[in-house]
Amino acid sequence: MKYLVLVAGLFVSGCSNLLDTSFYDDNESLLAVEVRYSVENLNCEYPTEKVKFKILKLKLYSESKGSKDVSSLVDKMSKTAAGLSRDMNPTVCKIKKKILAKQSKDIAYAIMRRY
Predict the structure, then answer these.
(1) Of 25, 110, 114, whose CA–CA distance to 64 is shortest?
(2) Disulfide check for 67: which of 62, 78, 95, 115 has CB 3.0–4.6 Å away?
(3) What pTM was estimated for this model as a whole?
(4) How many Å apart are CA 48 and CA 39, to the nearest integer?
């Protein structure tokens, strides 16, 4: 019986290292909402770098905090936003905006549903 308890304890403690979910943070939530807001206000007739700056701010904060789960999501969003520039085709911008809106909504949902 002692061995069963010991093995169970080792198993549980070993699995806890596999979880990369971070805890709730007000600042991270605010940054996620700022990213969503900047994506919603993106004007594809005159796209600016503002969205990329907001994403970078969230990425740097999450990395500094050690939120591996958020950092991986924000990395993917950064790749989507990488092509945004003033001289891009408005149609391509609208497609990117739609993808960025979905990604920012998913990130905000993931951040705000943590404990």
Answers:
(1) 25
(2) 62
(3) 0.77
(4) 11
